[in-house]
Every structure is written in C-alpha cells, then in structure tokens.
C-alpha cells in the first residue's frame, strides 16, 4: 500500500502549535488594504487560531489522512 501524502496546500497555509491549536493568517491581509480602516488593519496582523471543527479537518490533511 502506498504512503499517505501530506496535503501541500494546507501545509503552506496552516501550522499546528505545541498545544495542538491550528494557526492561520486572517483573510483580507494580502492586498487592497487601502479601503480598510487602520483599526481593521491592526487587528488583521499576526495569526489567529482555527475553530475546533475546522482544525480537525486540517490536522487530518497535514497528517496525510483523507478529509
């Protein structure tokens, strides 16, 4: 039986912390930020944790299991 492969797109977009939380970058941070208020831009800095239901799917993809 062949090895299960890591989902490469998920690997580039998410990371799992030591405590098991899945971190990701917030949406709307890459471009077209001129119409967003400075308060929104500040809040979009850094990473945020993923909801537990979504985190389970992402962990499976990173582990090499199917969704």
Describe this structure in words.
The protein is of the alpha+beta class and 67 residues long. It has one domain (8-63): Factor Xa Inhibitor. The protein contains three helices and three strands; from the N terminus they run H-E-E-H-E-H. The chain has helices at 8-13, 38-43, 52-63, and strands spanning 14-16, 22-25, 47-49. The mean pLDDT is 90.
SSE topology:
Layout lengths: L7 H6 E3 L5 E4 L12 H6 L3 E3 L2 H12 L4
Antiparallel strand pairs: 1-2, 2-3
- The low-confidence runs, each spanning 5 or more residues with pLDDT under 50, are none
Could you give the order of the helices and strands? HEEHEH
Biggest sheet architecture: 3 strands, antiparallel
CATH architecture: Irregular
Q: Provide the number of structural domains.
A: 1
Structural class: alpha+beta
β-sheet strand percentage: 5-15%
- Overall pLDDT, averaged? 90
CATH topology (fold) name: Factor Xa Inhibitor
Helical segment count: 3
C-alpha geometry:
elongated
Describe the structure concisely:
With 67 residues, the protein is an alpha+beta fold.
Give descriptors for this structure.
67 residues; alpha+beta; Factor Xa Inhibitor; 3 helices; 36% helix; elongated
